[in-house]
Amino acid sequence: MSKELIRLSNVTMAFDGDVVLDDLNLYFNDKEFLTLLGPSGCGKTTTLRIVGGFLVPTSGDVYFDGVRINDVPPHKRKINTVFQKYALFPHLDVYENVAFGLRIAKVPEDEIDERVTEMLEIVSLRGFENRKITTLSGGQQQRVAIARALVNRPRVLLLDEPLGALDMRLRKDMQSELKRIQQAMGITFIYVTHDQEEALAMSDTVVVMNEGVIQQIGTPEDIYNEPKNAFVADFIGESNIVDGIMRSDKVVEIFGRKFDCLDAGFAPDEDVDVVIRPEDVDIVPFREGQLTGIVTDVTFKGMQYDIIVDFKGFKWLIQTTDYCAVGSKIGIKIDPDGFHVMKKSKYSGLYGDYSSYSEEYEELSDPDADVGGEESSDDKEVAEDENA
Amino acid sequence: MKRLNRFITIIVLIFLYVPMIVLAVASFNTGSDIAIWEGFTLHQYAELFRDANLLRLLLNSLIISVLASLIATMLGTMASLGIFSMRSRMRRLVMTVTDIPMTNPEIVTGVSLALLFAFAGTFLKIKSILGFFTLLIAHVTFNLPYVILSVMPKLAQMDGDLRDAAMDLGCTPRQAFFKVLIHEIMPGIISGALMSFTMSLDDFVISYFVSGSGFITLPVEIYSYTKKPLQPKIYALFTLLFIVILLVMVAMNLLQMKDAKKRVQARRAFRGRTGRAGV
Amino acid sequence: MKTRKLLAAPYIVWMCIFTVIPLGIVVYYAFTDSITGALTLSNITGIASYTGIFLKSIWLALISCAICLIIGFPTAHFIATRPKESTQKLLYMLIMLPMCISFLLRTLAWVALLDDTGIINNAIRLLGMKPLPLVRNNGAVVLGMVYNYLPYMILPLYSVIVKIDHRLVEAAEDLGANHGQVFRHVILPLSVPGIISGFTMVFVPAVSTFYISQKLGSSGTTLIGDVIESQFKTAYNPNLGAAMSLVLMIMVFACVAIMNRFSDGEAEVIM
What we know:
The complex is a heterotrimer. By secondary structure, chain A is of the alpha+beta class. Chain A is built from ten helices and 20 strands. The N and C termini of chain A lie far apart (53 Å). Mean pLDDT of chain A is 86; it is low at 358-388. Chain B is mainly α. Chain B has a domain at 42-224: MetI-like (MetI-like fold, Orthogonal Bundle), CATH 1.10.3720. Helices cover 81% and strands 0% of the residues of chain B. Chain B has eleven helices and no strands. Mean pLDDT of chain B is 86; it is low at 271-279. Chain C has 13 helices and no strands. Chain C has helices spanning 2-6, 9-30, 42-46, 51-80, 85-96, 103-114, 119-126, 138-161, 166-174, 179-208, 211-216, 224-233, 238-270. Chains in contact: A-B, B-C.
């Protein structure tokens, strides 16, 4: 499990002087499900394309099993890719798409037939062999793309936002499907997405990236519970991030009041960022509150209410199962394990404020916020229709 | 306004076709004066097939058009692939040069090539350099932009990942082109080749400046009739050509329509399925 | 990546040798003396005596453009608004088809129609009237230009008009515009790119033609194209011909550049 398979060392990538990856160091273990997570333009797809061999880094090295592979072209790597919009060959049917790599490798015909059939079985597409690619739904095309890559028995499968074009329910199904396939095949999956839920649900390891720099590497639990800076805390789940002062080990001061916490190892009176997850805040009667504020907004979310509470002009998001009316005064209580203290970073003060509640919150909770690519491809299809 | 538009369209079509009808009718005329109808005959068609000189000129035109369009299609398709992988600044520069023969008046292109060949002739000490090769070079030159301008949009429309996908599955760049990319850009290549062929076949102005007495094409010969009366069998030849072109175009249209129908059916099938999945 | 770019190398070399260098030679000839080969401006200044011919060429080409636009726009609009795609295709093909036949012959057919002893005048005589002077004048030259280049105006106009979203027309009608206003405020502005490309596609060959004016015109309708042609083919003064070609080319490119600037501005307004 823990054997290292691929290593990127000091990898920098620049296009026309624009630095997209800045001195990246990262390794991928054998048989793990690793996700590169970040907003669009963070460099995650570039990283993937460097591993796949479609880009040669401006500087730095790529190693596969200890061998430097910077100049090895894609067709000579034991790595296959599932492309963002699948990139299935429109002139070939399902069977021939899956058989493509084997034919190139001049595998004997009977073995091709056996492996393609087996692979179509795995992705539940038996009976679709002679169908044209254009007659398949998005989910089916997705499966063909996975089968086409896996039939070559690669050591590593790269997946570039493969679920981006699917609707919500199909996405959820495919998430567990992908995890199942990865475990069944016992190979490394490197998965790129901007969807944090997807990343947390499937991965063994999550790499959070922003502006070409790795922000944090860890298990999904680590990333969620122990974010390294305000960017990670904000990008993964919902977070209230406030300025605090570390008075001593296990004592943090916010809003001029000292709280017990579990964090230690900071300098006395060091300025810090403090993360409080919305679900870690308990609502108590006004008088019993460690802090008190006024409810300014309530949204019913099914499982819980999302309420926005104004503390001395600073607005927090709190998730609670108790209904609170807008305008009511409430008190809150936070247990010591509800605080997470982080060192100040360049992201301090940029995130974790719900003052402009509606816009920011909606944007973050919208899993389809980054579907620009898909829309443009639809437009193109329409334009082609008109030409025909 | 709609009625006015219809009226004008009908007038335009009559306007466009009157001279063609005049030519076609003249090809069946017994007399040699195009303006005076003397009686029906197929004599001109028989004459046409007996005239070795005229048939040779037609053959010359066809040889030049086929060769020029083939060379231009190959060079142009290669060039499109190359240009497409260039950075935007370099690409813009090359496309500007591509635009020159498209925008330049034909007479200027013809004159500039004639001067180049004259220059080369004195340099290489060849007395009469104008002939088959100069004609071929000129035709390839003005065909190339048409090929590039019809292949490039197909490359742009294509899913950019297809090439990567082919390489990912073990194709060398060459295999990726012949097994995948060429299928995607084929419509562009074909329309570029067809356009080149018709442009070449019909070209007069440029050919006029770069052809010598050794090898001339049909349009150049027709121009030289300016001073002497046109032989009526030429009308017969062009009536035949018109019919051939008409048949080719109708056939192409039918093929396209069949293709479009297939695509519509495919799309319908696709929508049906996603519709069900959504319920 | 590098090797892919190399695929364009033969093309770039070809275009340098057969497009860029020939233009350089044109410039060289334009500034050298035909006999001594010395640098001179006399070719360029010599053009001054042809100013009238230049102006006439431009004037006739502009009139042709205008007529092409006036009859081409309604035609393109009519074709583009046919509800059935097959009808559109058929009409489009009918407009294109005449271009497949040698324009020399089609022009000769017009001579046969318009000549003093041509088809039309023969018919007029049969009716007992006096024949009309239909050929060898400016009008006949313009007719020849319009006839030969009209498809170049209709085709780009068609491809622009057919892309106009019909909902825009409905939206304008919904907001109270009548047919004329819809045309003036919606269809016309959105057709500007097509008008411009049609205009240049007609203007460039019309201004430089030399066959049409020889067959349909007279000695009074000599155009730039005719003069350039005669410098190379009969008078044999290629240096003067090159100078005139250079001026013609600069004129055309300036015209296209201005047109493009104009259409870029329009495109921004539309967006």
